[in-house]
Please model this.
Amino acid sequence: MVVMLLALGAWGCGDDNETTMQDVKDSAKETLNKAMDYSQEQKEKFMKQVKQHWNSLKADVDQLQDKLAKEKDEASDRALEHWKAVKSDLEQKQEAVNQAYDELAEASGEAYGKAKKKLEAALADLKTAYEKAAAELKK
Model:
Protein backbone atom coordinates (compact mmCIF):
# COMPACT_ATOMS: atom_id res chain seq x y z
CA MET A 1 0.00 0.00 0.00
CA VAL A 2 2.83 2.39 0.84
CA VAL A 3 4.52 1.60 -2.45
CA MET A 4 1.27 2.30 -4.24
CA LEU A 5 0.88 5.71 -2.52
CA LEU A 6 4.45 6.63 -3.38
CA ALA A 7 3.89 5.63 -6.98
CA LEU A 8 0.71 7.73 -7.16
CA GLY A 9 2.52 10.67 -5.57
CA ALA A 10 5.36 10.39 -8.07
CA TRP A 11 2.89 10.07 -10.93
CA GLY A 12 1.17 13.30 -9.80
CA CYS A 13 4.47 15.20 -9.92
CA GLY A 14 4.99 15.55 -13.63
CA ASP A 15 8.03 17.03 -15.38
CA ASP A 16 6.06 20.22 -16.07
CA ASN A 17 6.66 21.47 -12.52
CA GLU A 18 10.36 20.69 -12.31
CA THR A 19 12.84 23.49 -11.94
CA THR A 20 15.48 23.26 -14.59
CA MET A 21 19.07 24.43 -14.43
CA GLN A 22 18.12 27.13 -16.96
CA ASP A 23 15.38 28.35 -14.60
CA VAL A 24 17.96 28.65 -11.82
CA LYS A 25 20.41 30.47 -14.11
CA ASP A 26 17.71 32.88 -15.31
CA SER A 27 16.57 33.57 -11.77
CA ALA A 28 20.14 34.15 -10.59
CA LYS A 29 20.83 36.46 -13.51
CA GLU A 30 17.67 38.46 -12.79
CA THR A 31 18.58 38.72 -9.10
CA LEU A 32 22.12 39.84 -9.93
CA ASN A 33 20.81 42.49 -12.35
CA LYS A 34 18.41 43.78 -9.71
CA ALA A 35 21.20 43.92 -7.13
CA MET A 36 23.45 45.80 -9.54
CA ASP A 37 20.65 48.26 -10.37
CA TYR A 38 20.01 48.79 -6.66
CA SER A 39 23.71 49.39 -5.99
CA GLN A 40 23.91 51.91 -8.82
CA GLU A 41 20.80 53.70 -7.55
CA GLN A 42 22.26 53.87 -4.04
CA LYS A 43 25.56 55.20 -5.40
CA GLU A 44 23.75 57.87 -7.43
CA LYS A 45 21.64 58.86 -4.41
CA PHE A 46 24.74 59.16 -2.21
CA MET A 47 26.61 61.12 -4.88
CA LYS A 48 23.70 63.56 -5.15
CA GLN A 49 23.60 64.05 -1.37
CA VAL A 50 27.36 64.56 -1.23
CA LYS A 51 27.23 67.05 -4.10
CA GLN A 52 24.57 69.09 -2.29
CA HIS A 53 26.55 69.03 0.95
CA TRP A 54 29.76 69.86 -0.89
CA ASN A 55 28.15 72.80 -2.75
CA SER A 56 26.81 74.20 0.52
CA LEU A 57 30.15 73.82 2.28
CA LYS A 58 31.99 75.31 -0.69
CA ALA A 59 29.69 78.37 -0.61
CA ASP A 60 30.42 78.76 3.12
CA VAL A 61 34.17 78.56 2.48
CA ASP A 62 33.89 81.09 -0.36
CA GLN A 63 32.03 83.50 1.94
CA LEU A 64 34.67 83.04 4.59
CA GLN A 65 37.40 83.78 2.07
CA ASP A 66 35.54 86.94 1.02
CA LYS A 67 35.47 88.04 4.66
CA LEU A 68 39.16 87.32 4.95
CA ALA A 69 39.85 89.48 1.91
CA LYS A 70 37.90 92.36 3.49
CA GLU A 71 39.75 91.98 6.77
CA LYS A 72 43.08 91.99 4.97
CA ASP A 73 43.41 95.77 5.01
CA GLU A 74 42.84 95.96 8.76
CA ALA A 75 44.99 92.99 9.73
CA SER A 76 48.50 93.14 11.03
CA ASP A 77 51.27 91.41 9.10
CA ARG A 78 51.23 88.56 11.59
CA ALA A 79 47.47 88.10 11.32
CA LEU A 80 47.72 88.36 7.54
CA GLU A 81 50.20 85.49 7.43
CA HIS A 82 47.96 83.43 9.66
CA TRP A 83 44.94 83.97 7.41
CA LYS A 84 46.99 83.20 4.31
CA ALA A 85 47.85 79.85 5.91
CA VAL A 86 44.20 79.25 6.81
CA LYS A 87 43.13 80.07 3.25
CA SER A 88 45.76 77.75 1.82
CA ASP A 89 44.67 74.96 4.16
CA LEU A 90 41.03 75.39 3.15
CA GLU A 91 41.97 75.32 -0.54
CA GLN A 92 43.97 72.11 -0.05
CA LYS A 93 41.08 70.48 1.79
CA GLN A 94 38.69 71.52 -0.98
CA GLU A 95 41.00 69.94 -3.54
CA ALA A 96 41.08 66.75 -1.45
CA VAL A 97 37.27 66.68 -1.52
CA ASN A 98 37.27 67.20 -5.30
CA GLN A 99 39.71 64.33 -5.82
CA ALA A 100 37.82 62.01 -3.46
CA TYR A 101 34.53 62.87 -5.19
CA ASP A 102 36.02 62.05 -8.59
CA GLU A 103 37.40 58.76 -7.27
CA LEU A 104 33.99 57.84 -5.87
CA ALA A 105 32.29 58.64 -9.16
CA GLU A 106 34.56 56.13 -10.92
CA ALA A 107 34.57 53.46 -8.21
CA SER A 108 32.55 50.28 -7.97
CA GLY A 109 32.54 47.17 -5.84
CA GLU A 110 35.03 47.11 -3.01
CA ALA A 111 36.73 50.27 -4.28
CA TYR A 112 33.43 52.13 -3.88
CA GLY A 113 33.34 51.45 -0.13
CA LYS A 114 36.89 52.72 0.29
CA ALA A 115 36.28 55.76 -1.90
CA LYS A 116 33.10 56.57 0.01
CA LYS A 117 34.95 56.53 3.34
CA LYS A 118 37.72 58.68 1.87
CA LEU A 119 35.20 61.26 0.62
CA GLU A 120 33.32 61.33 3.91
CA ALA A 121 36.61 61.89 5.76
CA ALA A 122 37.68 64.65 3.35
CA LEU A 123 34.33 66.42 3.77
CA ALA A 124 34.51 66.14 7.56
CA ASP A 125 38.08 67.47 7.52
CA LEU A 126 37.07 70.45 5.39
CA LYS A 127 34.03 71.16 7.54
CA THR A 128 36.12 71.11 10.70
CA ALA A 129 38.71 73.46 9.17
CA TYR A 130 35.97 75.79 7.97
CA GLU A 131 34.24 75.88 11.37
CA LYS A 132 37.55 76.60 13.13
CA ALA A 133 38.40 79.43 10.72
CA ALA A 134 34.89 80.90 10.95
CA ALA A 135 35.04 80.85 14.76
CA GLU A 136 38.45 82.57 14.72
CA LEU A 137 37.17 85.23 12.37
CA LYS A 138 34.27 86.04 14.69
CA LYS A 139 36.66 86.85 17.56
Q: What stands out?
A: Residues 1-12 have pLDDT under 50 and may be disordered. The CA atoms of residues 76 and 128 lie 25 Å apart.
